[in-house]
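To whoever is on call:

I kicked off a structure prediction for a single chain this morning and the downstream step that reads the tokens threw a length-mismatch warning. I double-checked the sequence; it's 331 residues and nothing unusual in it as far as I can see. Pasting both halves so you can look.
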Amino acid sequence: MNKKLISIILPIYNEAESIAVLYDRLNGVIDSLSATYDFEIIMVDDGSADESWKKINQLAQLDCRIRGISFSRNFGHQIAISAGYDYARGDALITMDADLQHPPHLIPALIEEWQKGAAIVYVRNRVVANGLVKKFFSTAYYFILDCIVPIKIPHNVQDFRLIDKKVATIVRQSREQSPYLRGMVAWTGFSSTFIDAAYDKRFTGKSGYSLSKMFKLAFDGMTGFSLFPLKIAAYIGFFVIATGCTMFAYITVDAFCNHVYYPLFKWLVTIIYIFIGVLFILIWFLGEYIGRIYNQLQARPLYVVAEELNSITLSNMMNEKKPLHCHCERV
């Protein structure tokens, strides 16, 4: 019986001190599952400035299951995971950070949920965030995301997850320059489930995710799956026009009915105010066109097929000149 292959993808940036410890822990988990599954470990060096690539080379010489990828420079965490998805050959793909915050001992639980039928298995952190300020911004971010994004992006999850190969196939088709993989995986719409667990602390050093990188990731999440920022001009425009027309109607009635004198500049200011609202509406129209161009450039699949019955490929349908016939026997 052929074993199913599990790909473990590790984006690595300046983690030379933790790679050996991570490998030892992964090896212990993999050995316990080796009777049922085959494994490959894909280590993606995201342009590290330390000896991470050297450590990966040493491990690859000792273990043929390790596959190493080294970037020419630092392209970013999400791009490193995307590269791992591109190179992975597994029936299921597990992504986890190399700083040991994502506990390897949860891998059997991820695989178990996958075997039960879930195409996506997230590891949800029991601890929302460390510190009141970080917790506040995390809660506010997910609240805004829920309000403006049409798909449900899971809360309090990082990139510690398992996806089925059919999910990976869809994700690979999207070649975005600023990917937000948490959203992209959720966008596919396949069945998902959660494992609740507490993440560990970093094994050593400081996180490579600076405040600016965290802000960029959050911004990519909002702009990559919502055109709401482009629609803000419309809301402002309608508000300005409505209030401007109300002001104009008021001074008109007051001037003609109550014989109140209004200087010319007040009439002009009111009219200019209304035209500013019109400009916001025109900006909204321009934004809508830009948004459609942006959606087209993202090149995401138009649809995702979960299952097929009596399937026939589109190319065969296009080449088939005769109508399809189905002969069924009546009982």
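Update from on-call: the warning came from a stale cache, not from the record. Cleared it. Sanity check on the structure: Residues 264-298 form the longest helix (35 residues).
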